[in-house]
Amino acid sequence: MTLDAWVFEKAAWKNGYTSVAGIDEAGRGPLAGPVVSAAVILPDDVPISGIKDSKKISPTRREKLFDDIHRHAIAVGVGIVGPVEIDRMNILQASLLSMAISVRNLQTVPDFLLIDGQFPISGDLPQKAIPKGDSLSISIAAASIIAKVTRDRIMDQYARDYPEFDFSRNKGYPTRAHKEAIRKYGYCSIHRLSFKGVKEYCR
């Protein structure tokens, strides 16, 4: 996180915006499961320490921060796009769609968006795309935590339906064991059939 994790939020506030949402996604790289995005609007006096890019936080700490963010945020929205849609439109477009859905699911309507990455999302709201935004903006970092924990919990549920793929451990990512399981058992209903590592086994 930057020395001032609020630098992008402050810039938006200075320009007259009052309800700034950070947006991030989780799950672009896996071979299975949905892509999940979150949008988070934080108060400027949020009493939570340690919010940063979810990839740099332990699972236990992420769970704690997940609860804290839900407790103290002005609004939290989640957007989920499943593997069928990912295969139909490609993972980039599915990720952007899940981001747009997460914004629509906010209980409070934002007036400015801070988006992780380099691509804008659909909609009429003013927005700023920020490469590596989850390491630069506290709102985007909070969204990354919500998206990651939400997706991990979904994959834990799928692990009970498809124990042979060990989704609770790999979360759908292309680990050696996961790829070996696909070779052994074939694909299941939540695999992304357009992805290398799965499509080779589609008939």
Give a short synopsis of this structure:
The protein has 203 residues and is of the alpha/beta class. Helices cover 40% and strands 15% of the residues. The chain has a single domain (7-161), classed as Nucleotidyltransferase, domain 5 (2-Layer Sandwich).
Largest sheet: 5 strands, mixed
The helix content, as a percent range, equals 25-40%
- Residue fraction in strands: 5-15%
The Cα radius of gyration reads 17 Å
| Total E-strand runs | 5
Supply the number of helical segments: 7
Q: Strands of the largest sheet, in order across it? A: 3-2-1-4-5
- The CATH class turns out to be Alpha Beta
Distance between the termini: 46 Å
In CATH terms, what is the fold-level topology? Nucleotidyltransferase, domain 5
What does this structure look like?
The protein has 203 residues and is of the alpha/beta class. The chain has one domain (7-161): Nucleotidyltransferase, domain 5, CATH 3.30.420. The protein has seven helices and five strands. The protein has helices at 7-14, 59-72, 83-89, 91-104, 138-161, 167-170, 176-185; strands at 20-26, 35-41, 75-81, 112-116, 127-130. Strands 3-2-1-4-5 form a five-stranded mixed beta sheet. α2 crosses α5 (138-161). The chain is globular. The model has no long low-confidence stretch (mean pLDDT 96).
